[in-house]
Design goal:
The chain is an all-alpha fold. It folds into 2 domains: 68 residues; 42 residues. Helix content is 85%, strand content 0%. The protein contains 4 helices and no strands. α1 packs antiparallel against α2. The termini are far apart. The mean pLDDT is 93.
């Protein structure tokens, strides 16, 4: 229950920060942006104090570690794979176009619309 209250406070802080940003439109943009940033940071810290926020933070950190472990393809491998995909897309496009022409001919022959 306490976690839900903390999350609600964080959401209300963000809403109040956005409302304040537009309410004080006559103030300098720099001050409004800095105040909004400060409100977002406070709301983020409050959200991190909840179980959901901590789990989300840990998931993000784990995701970054997994991305670092990944073996990325070289530039040459990337270019080759891209070219293969482009060639296959063109080939499949031609096959589908020919299939469409055959179906069009068949429908025209069946309906008597072809010359």
């Amino acid at each position: 229950m306490l976690d839900k209250i903390k999350l609600l406070v964080a959401v209300l802080l963000i809403a109040a920060g956005i409302a304040g940003f537009y309410t004080y439109a006559e103030e300098a943009l720099l001050y409004r942006v800095l105040a909004l940033l400060a409100v977002f940071i406070v709301a983020f810290v409050i959200a991190l104090k909840t179980e959901v926020g901590l789990n989300t933070w840990n998931f993000g950190r784990s995701s970054i570690l997994e991305v670092r472990k990944a073996v990325w393809p070289t530039r040459q491998e990337t270019i080759q794979a891209t070219l293969m995909v482009a060639v296959l897309v063109i080939i499949v496009g031609i096959i589908l176009w020919l299939f469409d022409l055959m179906l069009l001919s068949a429908v025209q022959m069946l309906t008597g619309q072809g010359g």
